[in-house]
Write a structure and sequence with these properties.
It is built from 8 helices and 21 strands. With 440 residues, the chain is of the alpha+beta class. A hairpin with a 5-residue loop joins β10 and β11. It is globular, with a radius of gyration of 23 Å. Keywords: Aminopeptidase, Hydrolase, Metal-binding, Metalloprotease, Protease, Zinc. Belongs to the peptidase M1 family.
């Protein structure tokens, strides 16, 4: 059964094409369900975010400037965006293409709805323009949005790195945005910080400028790092990290740079994850018949991380235990854990990142397909780990067992408020959903 199943799937892309079609159709709710969703108005369409962040390690705050390229689709006096725990400067301006800037007459923030509303003195007319916003946020310790992660270095000293966790709806903690998966846009990220730190984002570095600051008594060197523009993508996939990192790297046969990064002193623990990532990236390209669409792929171990891993496009973040290992003490169980986590997140680089659910009620297919592919690819590349047999027992049989309980629920759960999505990240979504994907 195992061999025949793998043979059928590996030698035909019909399954993949069907699942891609399903991802588009499975989220097509009835008009009543769509109208019941609490989403932002459709009076604007955002094409690009140009975001400049200046994190401060001393007070764990950051300054932000966002220039948002958008099209007004109907006459309106208000623009609404998602924002959470951001102090927004009232001098918000909108500049229509070829016209003069207009300053918002009022800026209001709803903490309950995590929204900010910009009211303008006159109606904004249909057409393209730019919205400019300045704000201040917190580098929180809640492992959500743009946050700080503490660790003790190899010399016993407390250090911090900065990382992000935007999924499900915490991009709004880092910058004002339309924080909905189907409202994709291009992201241009720029970060200014101490010159001695490394800065990462979804895309490769485009430019780096070093300049002096501070005072005569205490001069400081700073850097501004600008990254290449991203493809159109959902806000929950935006990522950036700042800190002191070590890394190992390799290149796929098609020339994609793959790196595994960690905090100082752990570089020797990155090798196995690099091997898996490089191999499975090439395997997915062949299986899906679609090249990996970004110039590079970074995988980084974050000391404080709420999830197992997060599939940010081009900059995948991991809990340390799911990425790093001592090569001299690498058990089969640990190999399987790292292998499954890496293959799962890299499957998302296509299914979830390239092809994305319309709304959060499609999260089951997002995760189910990645769970299916993690085991299919792992079994093809590392058959000695026996991960397909484990998958059949854990996901397929486990999914059927879960479905027999009174607590079971449909894999497609209507979600009317985005805040409800975290309730859907359960074993039904992963195991029952993956069992259904295998049957398809």
């Amino acid at each position: 059964m195992k061999c025949s199943c793998l043979h059928d799937v590996r030698h035909s892309h019909r399954t993949t094409h069907f699942l891609v079609s399903l991802s588009r159709s499975s989220v097509m709710s009835s008009p009543g369900e769509q109208s019941a969703r609490y989403v932002l108005p459709d009076n604007i369409v955002i094409s690009e975010y140009d975001i400049h962040l200046k994190p401060n390690f001393d007070n764990f705050r950051f300054q932000g400037t966002s220039k948002i390229s958008l099209a007004v689709t109907k006459p309106t006096k208000t623009i609404k965006l998602n924002a959470k725990e951001l102090s927004i400067d009232p001098s918000v301006t909108y500049t229509p293409s070829g016209g003069s800037s207009v300053t918002a007459s009022s800026v209001s923030v709803s903490k309950a709805a995590t929204e900010c509303t910009f009211e303008f003195p006159e109606e904004l007319q249909p057409g393209e323009g730019e919205l400019a916003i300045e704000y201040v946020g917190t580098l929180n310790d809640q492992m959500a949005g743009f946050y700080r992660s503490g660790y003790v270095d190899q010399f016993g000293k407390k250090q911090y790195m900065l990382s992000t966790q935007m999924e499900s709806i915490d991009a709004r903690r880092a910058f004002p945005c339309i924080d909905e998966p189907n409202r994709k846009a291009v992201f241009r990220i720029t970060i200014t910080t101490d010159a001695g730190l490394q800065v990462l984002s979804n895309m490769p570095e485009a430019s780096r400028t070093v300049f002096n600051g501070g005072s005569n008594e205490k001069p400081v060197s700073y850097q501004t790092v600008e990254f290449m523009p991203s493809p159109k993508m959902s806000s929950y996939l935006v990522a950036f990290c700042v800190g002191q990192f070590e890394f190992v790297q390799d290149t796929t046969k098609k020339g994609t740079l793959v790196r595994v990064l960690c905090t100082p002193g752990k570089q020797a623990q990155c090798g196995y994850a690099l091997e898996v990532a490089t191999r499975v990236l090439a395997w997915y390209e062949e299986f899906f018949g679609i090249p990996y669409p970004l110039p590079k792929l970074d995988l980084i171990a974050v000391p404080d991380f709420a999830m197992g891993a997060m599939e940010n496009w081009g900059l995948v973040t991991y809990r340390e235990i799911d990425l790093l290992c001592n090569p001299d003490k690498l058990s089969t169980k640990r190999r399987a854990r790292i292998t499954s986590t890496v293959t799962h997140e890299l499957a998302h680089q296509w299914f979830g990142n390239l092809v994305t659910m319309d709304w959060w009620d499609g999260i089951w297919l997002n995760e189910s397909f990645a769970s299916f592919m993690e085991n299919l690819s792992a079994d093809a590349l590392y058959p000695e780990l026996g991960m397909w047999n484990t998958y059949i027992h854990q996901f397929f049989e486990g999914g059927l067992e879960l479905d027999g309980l009174r607590s079971s629920h449909p894999i497609v759960v209507p979600i009317y408020h985005a805040e409800e999505v975290d309730q859907v990240f359960d074993h039904i979504s992963y195991e029952k959903g993956s069992a259904v994907v295998r049957q398809l």
